Fold this protein.
Amino acid sequence: MAQINLLKQQDSTSNFGQFLPGLFVKVLTVAVICLFAYYGWLFLKAKKLVNNISAAEKTISDSKTQAATMPGRDELLTRQAQLKELSGLISKHTYMSQLIPALAKVTLKTAIYTSLKSAGDGNMTLSVALPDMNELDKFLQVFDRPEFSKNFNNLRIGSIHKVQSNGRLYYKFDVIMTYNTSLLNYNGSAISK
Amino acid sequence: MEFQTSKSFFKSTAPVIKKSPRTSLMEIILLVVVIVLFYWFIAKPKQAEVASLDSKYSEVKAEAESVKNQVEQLKGLVQQLKSHSKDIMLLDEALPLDGKITRLNLLMNSLAASSGVTLGDLSLSSRGDYISAGNTAIINNPFAAKRSLQKTTVNLNLFGNFSQIQGFLRKLENNGRILNLTSVEIEGSQDDKLNLRLSLETYYYE
């Protein structure tokens, strides 16, 4: 009678089924070992980093102490601040002497200035003497010309007085005017002689 | 008669431990649990800690390098300062480190004399609490004291002809010391002379 071996067919699958959990266990065991090793590596790395940070912080602290106690440092800082203040002052420095030649350019030859007051704020008061009314008119007309009014403008005249000086009659008056403050900026001509 | 060899004896008598599928499954589950818990509660926080420390170290290292460079730069600047004594003199002339009014008085007299003008009144006013001499803070350590920009106001009255007055004004404006004219008044006077009244500000860093 023919016998059918049914067990043999089941053998390979049951072997594989028995083998697979063991393989999993081995793989997972290796994974656990690797994980422990990884943790160990992290632990050592963290320790090393902490040491490195401490060393770097010490370097910073030492460098700061060295900088703070360096001879000449205080003088250097003072000089830097002094220079900074000076730069600010130089940029605001004005040359009021440049106002006089600029004013001379717009003044008639017959006009006599008896006083000049300026506070550097763009306003100026002049006391002017002129021989007659025609000259006074010409004096004022000059400031209506654009090339001159750009520097001196908004002239306001007070009362006009007739005065005698050195045997001659003059019309004397005060003029308040506005001048262009850029005239006070350095233009290279105000060099000490 | 046949005797069993030790090898065959053990082979035949050693108990064969067969793992049941349930035991293997338990092991797998246990290992997976160990892996997950270890990773989640121990390795992962450590990983984060290391990442944070690494980032901090990079920052601290960069700062240490920067501070070190700054110290080197400072050393260089101190050396440069020592080798520029002439420039320091000019700087001290332009903006002195003290507000001694005697020096300013001498300067005004010298400028007036060199321009040919006659100096009349001269008044100098500085801040009220200014210590003219014996400032212990500055004597003990001249550069450690806290300083700020201070102002001295000068009012002066002088006489001269037009060119002398103009020369004086130019010398004032171009002087090595910063002298800022704040007000100018020119008036005719006797003998063809002009009277110049000036207000000016000068500064010191103390």
